[in-house]
Amino acid sequence: MKAQSDNKDLVREQFTKTAEVFGKFAVATRGVEAGKLLEMVRAGRDDRAIDVACGPGSLALRFALQTRWVCGVDLTPAILRRAKDSAAEDRLPNLDFTVGDAHRLPFADNSLDIAVTSYALHHMPDAPRVVGDMARVVRRGGRVGIADIFVGEDPAGADLTNRIERTRDASHTRTLRRSEFDRIFRESGLRVVATEIQENDRQFDHWLHVAGWHPGEAPYQEARRLIESTLENDAAGFHPRYEPVGPGAEPELMITNTTLLIAGEKS
Q1: Smallest Cα–Cα separation from 199: which of 147, 259, 150, 263?
Q2: What is the phi/psi pair of residue 23, to 5°?
Q3: Which one of 138, 181, 246, 251 is most buried, counting C-beta atoms within 10 A?
Q4: Of the candidates 8, 23, 10, the residue with the CA atom closest to the CA atom of residue 168
Q5: Is there a contact between 13 and 171 (Cβ–Cβ < 8 Å)?
Q6: Is there a contact between 190 and 144 (Cβ–Cβ < 8 Å)?
Q7: Which residues pair with 98 in a beta bridge?
Q8: Residue pLDDT, tens place only, 182-215
């Protein structure tokens, strides 16, 4: 229990610190993934949905356009304020937000149609419990959708990936293997109905910037050292390389975040 409490403190600290910069990035860039996940869970006009660990609302804002009601749940008040501001700007009266723990969602059994989350499970001390609680709150025939990074099956590669992620963001717990998603869905009573893998290219500097770090700071330097150590063998799966980002520009360190989108239906 103390480990979970410590992790929650790290999550609140991280996303309070980066509420504006991360919130701006996530809302601006994750609309396509949100739209794809909306299709995969077959969201409809009569559906009631929750966005678990919603952050700045990158899923909730999109889902509110095509469902009857959405509630974003998050542990960090600062980033919820960022999400509420976006909802007000977009004039979305069917979108609410509440502070809550993804491990114990504040909703009754079988009370909702859809539960979704994005880029959150790798911050969770008990990812299977989170998915299980998402399954608990949706009705029979309800859908659960997740977008998140994943690692390969090789233990050494997974360990290095997680070391890099924790260097960048101390609230990172563990990135799940691809096979674990299928197992967790199955054990939660969810039948997988759709999957898709997407690759998102990122400038290393910006990847560290949205996590709150800048060149010269120790976490930035260590994360860069670790990424550059895999330039020849891609041992951590980030596909690192140097390439120019514009005409005549100097080559910059680039990485690729590989994301799994997966949707399941409650039996």
Answers
A1: 259
A2: -60, -45
A3: 138
A4: 10
A5: yes
A6: yes
A7: 73
A8: 999 999 999 999 999 999 999 999 999 999 999 9
Cα–Cα distance, 141 to 146 (Å, whole number): 17
Q: Which residues have a Cβ under 8 Å from the Cβ of 111 and sit 6 or more positions away?
A: 48, 137, 139
Q: Quick one: how far is CA 211 from the chain centroid?
A: 13
What b/e string do you get for 163-178 counting C-beta neighbours within 10 Å, with b at 16 or more? ebbbbbbebbbbbbbe
Nearest to 151 by CA among 264, 258, 37, 33: 258
Rounded CA-CA distance 205/21 in Å is 13
**What is the torsion angle, in degrees rounded to the nearest 10, for the CA atoms of residue 8, residue 221, residue 224 and residue 153?**
-40
Q: How many CB atoms lie within 10 A of CB 154?
A: 13
How far is the CA of 179 from the CAs of 117, 204, 265, in angstroms? 18, 27, 18
Report pLDDT for 8: 87
Domains within the chain, CATH numbers bracketed: 2-151+169-201+258-266 (3.40.50.150), 202-253 (no CATH)
**Per-residue CA distances from 208 to 224, 227, 244, 265 (Å):** 9, 12, 18, 36
End-to-end CA distance of the chain: 31
Distance of alpha carbon 34 from alpha carbon 37, whole angstroms: 5
